[in-house]
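Quick question, first post here. What does this chain look like in 3D?
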Amino acid sequence: MFCQKCGQELVDDAKFCAQCGTPIDGVAPVEESELDEPIVVLKPVFIPWVTILSVLPLQIFFTIWGGGFFGGFSTVLIKGLKLPIPIWFPFVFFACLAFFGIPLLIYNMKKKTYAKTEYRFFKKRLDYYEGFFTVEEKTVDYRNITEVYLRKGIVQKKYGIGTILLTTPSVTMSQNRAMSGIQVADIKNPDEVYKQIKDLIYQARK
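> Answer (accepted):
Ran it through. Tokens below.
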């Protein structure tokens, strides 16, 4: 069973929704046939160079800050311990560590997150699984989706992908931020998928 208000899955003997507090009267059972095969399954498309380019400002900042702060701190230790290391070495070492390490870390995190992310659209509901280190799973009843948007940026149009935004009244936590709705990001054939999702939501409301 699922809550009609927020889409949270409920145990059979639940009297209230654990997510939003809706009474049992507001819960409608989902037919077994709806649980078997999704109508549409979507996964985001990972574009490596876009990910690396997006972290460039952060990369430059931490290269300068890391090289200056940790390099300066290490220089004090080198002088104090009278180690046979050039004074310039720690500055260059920590600057290079930040310059190459930050994009590599973010690249791997996003790639693994996208690999684990999946959106399954059934006849009357959406199940989605997001994240790698922080995993988020949720079920949303189509009747609780208030608006559907399609967004395609310049880079997305070049690669034939787009992002579909589904607005819901309930609040969801994503990356420790409160947000209303679901973002189905960087999917292929966005125009066709957008039409399919709108049709599914329209049929569920009839």
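The longest helix spans residues 89-116.
The CA atoms of residues 14 and 35 lie 20 Å apart.
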